[in-house]
Amino acid sequence: MTPRDGGCVEHPDRGPLSKVEMAALVARDIEPGSFVNLGIGQPTLVADHLPAGSGIVLHTENGMLNMGPAATGDQVDPDLTNAGKQPVTELPGASYFHQADSFAMMRGGHLDVCVLGAFQVSASGDLANWSTGADDAIPAVGEAMDLAMGAKQVFVMMSLFAKDGTPKLVPSCTFPLTGVACVSRVYTDVATFELGEHGARVVETFGITRDALAARLEVDLA
Amino acid sequence: MTPRDGGCVEHPDRGPLSKVEMAALVARDIEPGSFVNLGIGQPTLVADHLPAGSGIVLHTENGMLNMGPAATGDQVDPDLTNAGKQPVTELPGASYFHQADSFAMMRGGHLDVCVLGAFQVSASGDLANWSTGADDAIPAVGEAMDLAMGAKQVFVMMSLFAKDGTPKLVPSCTFPLTGVACVSRVYTDVATFELGEHGARVVETFGITRDALAARLEVDLA
Amino acid sequence: MKVCDTAVEALGAVEDGATVLVGGFGMAGMPVALIAALIEQGATDLTVVSNNAGNGDTGLAALLAEGRVRKVICSFPRQADSWVFDGLYRAGAIELELVPQGNLAERMRAAGAGIGAFFCPTGVGTPLAEGKETRVIDGRTYVLEMPIRGDVALIGAHRADRLGNLVYRRTARNFGPVMATAATRVVAQVSEVVDVGGLDPESVVTPSIYVDAVVAV
Amino acid sequence: MKVCDTAVEALGAVEDGATVLVGGFGMAGMPVALIAALIEQGATDLTVVSNNAGNGDTGLAALLAEGRVRKVICSFPRQADSWVFDGLYRAGAIELELVPQGNLAERMRAAGAGIGAFFCPTGVGTPLAEGKETRVIDGRTYVLEMPIRGDVALIGAHRADRLGNLVYRRTARNFGPVMATAATRVVAQVSEVVDVGGLDPESVVTPSIYVDAVVAV
C-alpha cells in the first residue's frame, strides 16, 4: 500500500473489491460495542464479517435488538423476520418493541451506525436510495429516510459506477433525495471515501490510483 | 322527590350530602365497563361504591390499569402505589406501563371518565383545581391539566360553597385555570349539575330547593 | 370488550369510506382472518393504512383486487409479490400516500396520544416533504407531520385475556400496539384467548383499554 | 454498557451545570443510591428534572439541601414532606419550571425520539401555557411544547442483564423508561444483575441500547 496526499492509501494490486470484500471493509470500521442497523440487500452481508466478541448489536427496524443470523430449517419462524422479511434468529439478550418505539430509537439518534445501499451519494453527503424518479416506477420508501436522518453515522455500500459507467458519487444528486448531508462514509468496489463539510476525501483505492479515480469522477476530491 | 323544570329533581328531605354520599352518586352515574381515573383526595372514595361486576376498570396515571383497593398489612408494596402515593393492590387483568404511555392513554381520549376535586368550576365547564393563586403558595400541578383535557368526561366532586360561604360554581373562574370547557358534571353536597354549551343545569338538589339554590349562586341556571 | 366466536362478528360494522388501519409487516402480524372478514362484510371506498400494500393474491391484496380500497397510506407498497397493488396503481385505479415508515408509526402514535401535530426530522429536503411546513429548531430542520387516525384497526396479536389485554410474539409485534391506540374501534385476532389473570401484568403490551373485540383463529 | 460495583463508579463524571433526569414517582422507582453518589461526586449548579422535588431529608431532598441544584423542572414539587424544596423556593434560592406531568413525560419522550417539538392539548388557556405558541388544528387548540433532554439520567429499575436490558416492577416503572431514552448517559440502579439471556426478550422494557451503566444495590 502507498500512502498519498490527504492520507489516501492506494492498493494497486487489490481490487476492484467484491461485495463480500466491501462488506468486510465496512465491518472493520464499526467500533466494538456499536448498535448497528444493516439495510436491506448488500449491507446485510456486513453481519458475516463482524468479529466474534465485538459486542456489536444488530437492530432491525421491524422491532428487535440483538438480531441473529438468518434462520434455516427448523429455526424458521414466521413471527421472526428482518426488515427484508427474511427469517432470522434471536441472540441472547434480545429485546422486542413496536414500530413507534423502534423508529424512536432510530430517529432519536441512538443507533451508532447504519449501512445502506445507494443509487447516488453527493460529495456533501446527500443520499438518494429510494427512487430513481422513473415515471412508471411504483414508489416505495420504507425505513430509508428514517435511517438516513436517524443514525449517528450513515455508511453507504455501492459500486462506484453504474452499469453504463456513470459515477454514483456525484456533485449533486439527480435522483430524488432520501436525506440531506447524512452520509459520512462511502464504501465502493474501487475506493472508500469520507464525506463531510470539506467534501469527499478518498481514504483507500483498490486496483486504481487516486489520480485515475479522480479523472473518472466529476466531484472535487479533498 | 319532586321533578322540576329542566328535569331537576328536588330531595328536600335529604342532604346536605356527606362526602361518602357524593361519592355514591358519582359511582351511580359511571357506565358499566368504563375506564375511570379517580383524582387524589375525595374522588378516591368513589371506588368503594362501584358495583361488583360492573366491569369498571381503574386507571392510575403513575402507570397501571385495573388498580385494586388500598393495600393493608402484608399487601403493602412500595413499588405499587396510586397517584396519591398510597399503597394499593393489583386486580387480575392489570397492566403496567410507563409515564409517556400512561399519559398518552389519558391525553389521547381513551379514558371514559375522570373524577376530580375543584376549587372552582365555571358554568361553561372551566376548571380551577391546581392553584389558588396565593402569592406564597408552592405551585404544583401534577396530572390535573392532563386529566382535565384528556378524559372523555370530567366529573367534579366538591362542596358547593367554600367555608366562607362563597359559591364554587361561578360565572367565570377567578383562580388560575386547569382546563377550559372540560367539566361535564359537578357533584356537590347540595346539588348536582350538568354543564355544557347551554350553561349549568341543576339535575338534583339535596336539602334545598332549586329556587333557594339559584338565589345563592351568581350563575344563571339553565 | 367482547370475545367473539367469528372474525365477522369481531369485525362488526365497518362503514363505506372508513379508514382501516391494518397491522403487520409483510405477513408477520398480518390479521389475515380479519381482512377476510372485511372482504366478506362488504364495506367499500376504504382508505387502508398499512406498512405494505398486499402480498400475492390473499389478505390485503385480495381486498384491493375486489376494488374496495380507494386509497392506500403506506411506506413500502412495492414488493416482489405486490402485483395486485402495482396493477391498480399503474391503471390509476388507486390513490397512494407514501409515508416514511417511521412517520407512519409516529403519526399513528400521535393520533393515539392526543398530539395535534409534531415536528419530525425524517424526509426534510426530500420529495415526501414537499408542500409541508418546515421549521428550524435548535439549528436542525424539521417537517410538520399530522396524526393518522383510523375508524377501525385490525391487528394480529399472540394472546389476549378476556378483558382484551394483548401480548405479541417476536417481530410480529410491529404495528399492532401503535394501531391499537389510533382507531375508534380496535379488533384483534389472536392465537388464543386466556382467562383474566392469565397474562403477566408486567408483560402486557396493549392494555385492555384499547381493545374492543378479539377473536381466536 | 458497564456493570459496576459501586454507585459512584456507575454514576461516573457529571459536570457542573449538567441537566440530570431523576426517575421515580414519590419513592417508587427513586434511584436513591445514585442520588447519594451524585451528592458524593460533587457536581453543582445542576438542573434536575423529576416528577417531584424531594421527600423528607434524604435522596433528592438531600441534594437540594446541599445547594447543588440551580433549577428544578417538575410537575408536583409541593408535598406534605417537601420542606427542603419549599424552603429554598420561598427563599428564592431555587428556580422552578412547573410542567404538567404528561408534558414532562412527553417532552422527554420527544427528546428521545428525535421529535423537534409537538402540539399538545394540555395546559391550553392556563397560566402554564402563557407565552407559548398555540395553534388550532382540526378545531382544537394546542400548545407547542419543546423536548427536554438530559446530560445524564438516573433511574431505578428492577433487574438488568449484563447487556443493560432493563425490567421494572409494578408502578415503579413510571419515568424510568422515558428518561432512559432522553439522556446522553443513562445509569440504572437495580436489585439484581442477571446473565445475558436471563430476561425474557418479550418483556424487556428498556432495551440495552439506552443504558450505559448499571449497579446492583
TrEMBL record, chains A, B:
Q: Does the keyword Transferase apply?
A: yes
Ordered alphabetically, the record's keywords are: Transferase
What InterPro entries does the record tag this protein with? Answer: 3-oxoacid_CoA-transf_B (IPR012791), CoA_trans_fam_I (IPR004165), NagB/RpiA_transferase-like (IPR037171)
Q: Which residues form the signal peptide?
A: none
Single GO MF annotation: CoA-transferase activity
Highest taxon listed in the record's lineage: Bacteria
Q: Which NCBIfam families match?
A: pcaJ_scoB_fam
What family is reported?
Belongs to the 3-oxoacid CoA-transferase subunit B family.
Its recorded name reads 3-oxoadipate CoA-transferase, beta subunit
**Species whose genome carries this gene:** Nocardioides psychrotolerans
From TrEMBL, chains C, D:
Alphabetized, the UniProt keywords read: Transferase
UniProt keyword Transferase present: yes
Q: Which InterPro entries match?
A: 3-oxoacid_CoA-transf_A (IPR012792), CoA_trans_fam_I (IPR004165), CoA_transf_BS (IPR004163), NagB/RpiA_transferase-like (IPR037171)
PROSITE patterns named among the record's database cross-references: COA_TRANSF_1 (PS01273)
Q: Which GO terms describe its molecular function?
A: CoA-transferase activity
The record's annotation in NCBIfam families points to: pcaI_scoA_fam
Q: Which PANTHER family match?
A: ACETATE COA-TRANSFERASE SUBUNIT ALPHA, KETOACID-COENZYME A TRANSFERASE
> Could you identify this protein by its name?
3-oxoadipate CoA-transferase, alpha subunit
The organism's lineage is: Bacteria, Bacillati, Actinomycetota, Actinomycetes, Propionibacteriales
